[in-house]
């Protein structure tokens, strides 16, 4: 779990960054049925981390969780799925750009 001191720093620890990046990866994989968990379970993992995150990072995670919820009931490959429309990619890009200053040693430009 992330620690509160990260809030007062300009960056997060390597462990904090890794924990968050892995949780986000689980959400991405869950949205396409490849995580061995449901998107709701993946969102739950992110929600557990949010209280200790900087506010701007937490806000972008809320956006991604909302996009994930909007995908429920839509089959992967359906043109209206958020991964097909680009909605998820836009939210993911915003999250990575916001996270980048807190995790400078992580390559988040993809």
List the helices and strands and how they pair.
Elements: H1 14-31, H2 39-49, H3 55-70, H4 82-85, H5 87-99
Helix pairs in contact: 1-2, 2-3, 3-5
Describe this entry's structure for a reader.
The protein has 110 residues and is an all-alpha fold. It has one domain. It has helices at residues 14-31, 39-49, 55-70, 82-85, 87-99. Helix 1 (14-31) packs antiparallel against helix 2 (39-49), helix 2 runs antiparallel to helix 3 (55-70) and helix 3 (55-70) packs antiparallel against helix 5 (87-99). The longest helix has 18 residues, at 14-31. The protein is globular. The model is unreliable at 1-8 (pLDDT under 50).
List keywords for this structure.
mainly alpha, 110 residues, 5 helices
Q: Given the structure, what is the number of helices? A: 5
Strand portion, in percent? under 5%
Distance between the termini: 26 Å
pLDDT < 50 runs, ≥5 residues: 1-8
* SSE pattern: HHHHH
Shape: globular
Radius of gyration: 14 Å
Number of domains: 1
Structural class: mainly alpha
> How would a textbook summarize the main sheet?
none
How helix-rich are the residues, as a percent range? 55-70%
Number of strand segments: 0
Summarize model confidence as the mean pLDDT: 88
What's the quick description here?
This protein has 110 residues and is mainly alpha-helical.
